[in-house]
Amino acid sequence: MKCVVKKGKTLLVDGPASVSLLSGKISILGALLKIGEKLVIREGKRLPLWVKKRASFELLLGEGASFKEVDEGTIPSSWDDIAKEIFSFKKPVTVMVVGGVDSGKTSFCTFLANAAVMKKWKTGIIDADLGQSDVGPPSTVGFNFVTEPVKDLFEIDAQDAVFVGSTSPSGSINRVIEGLIQLKDRIMEAGADFLVINTDGWVEGEEAAAYKARLADKISPSAVVGMQRGNELTPIINALHDVKVLVIDSPQLIQPRSREKRKILRELSYKKYLKRAKMVSLSLSWVKVKNSLLGTGGPLPNKRFETLKNLLGTRPIYSEENGAAIFIVLRRSNAVTEKQIRDVEEYFGKKVKVIREGDEEGLLVGLKDEGDKFLGIGILHGVNYKRRNLKVYTPVSEKVAILCFGQIKLDKNCRETGLSTVYSNYLL
To answer: Tens of pLDDT along the chain (428 residues)?
Structure first.
């Protein structure tokens, strides 16, 4: 359908939709849309098209999509004021953005990055929002440089990323912080003038405040920008020390998303990073594993294995032992009692983890090269425990040297089916 909007108005479009500019001039968070250019808006995503000169559009709306015209401009005056202050800092400048779910963090990060690019500053962005990551797959901390204004951070592919393996930082705080420090150092070594760091929406409770304070302490940003609707960031702001804090209200144009919509956005991102994937085989003989009990030990000697079998009352199809734990895989039809597991732990003096063959299917994995550089993600389709061989569905074609197990499970359509600690090394 054709749509005409007057100068000074904003057209809000909720995807899935596409917009083609036929005439006029519009800006999306500081990025201009060219005449004839087609803009695709994902399901669960809203983009504001600010009309700078009377414009006509061709709109194609998918199921559940919508649009409306509003009088407000895209960029609140408070954003412009804070941007001016930030760009007055001495380079290099690092800005960490915090706020709750659907507070406008990503839109503000996009606006800031575009403004820096327009100033011809060498600009990088780190996306540490594990559950709603745009730069990099979900469950990763991803980064890249922004070389031209963008309408949606999803347009930016990750140049590098740190695989965390979870969509929430609460159980992986140290890994997220280490990843952020690693990526920030890399960006600064490359001579960046400006770095924007987007964070997750976990802001409620003492643990969340302590986490954000640790992030700021380790990253040492030039400023922390807090986006809030009320006073939900007060505990975080009070926990920040020795850093400049700038607080702005979340824009009224932000559309809160349901949990299901956020899940859909993650699934679209999984599909993006699994495009052109194929099945590959990885041997535990030449691939190092991280964050896992599988592959970190060696086979039990015959005598110890026979003792293990007798204590369990069944023969495991696979077992390995390291200095702190014994990892056991049973056939699907087999079962052991908690008492039998306790008996094994007492006899061997070690923690025991028992799983069944097939429990690992669908597990999200991260793949790295021998230099510890992120190559991409994959889905674990199965393990041949006898041959110590893994089947992984992934687009990665480079040689894989390191494999990291996550806790997210996906089906063949990249839909999340749950969480799993099947290989987690929490016992250690």
So the answer is: 999 999 999 999 999 999 999 999 999 999 999 999 999 999 999 999 999 999 999 999 999 999 999 987 778 888 999 999 999 999 999 999 999 999 999 999 999 999 999 999 999 999 999 999 999 999 999 999 999 999 999 999 999 999 999 999 988 899 999 999 999 999 999 999 999 999 999 999 999 999 999 999 999 999 999 999 888 999 999 999 999 999 998 887 777 888 899 999 999 999 999 999 999 999 999 999 987 889 988 999 999 999 999 999 999 999 999 988 999 999 999 989 999 999 999 999 999 999 999 999 999 999 999 999 999 999 999 999 999 999 999 999 999 999 999 999 999 899 999 999 898 765 44
CATH 2.60.120.1030 fits 2-70, yes or no: yes
The DSSP annotation for 284-315 comes to TTT-EEES-STTSSBPPPHHHHHHHHHHHTS-
Q: Give the C-alpha separation, 155 to 44, whole Å.
A: 16
How far apart are the C-alpha atoms of 385 and 330, rounded to whole Å?
Answer: 10
Name the pTM for this structure.
0.92
Domain parsing of the chain, residue ranges:
2-70, 77-258, 274-428
Strand-pairing partners, residue 10, are: 50, 70
- Among 225, 229, 230, smallest CA distance to 247 is for 225
CATH superfamily of 77-258: P-loop containing nucleotide triphosphate hydrolases (3.40.50.300)
| DSSP three-state, residue 397 | coil
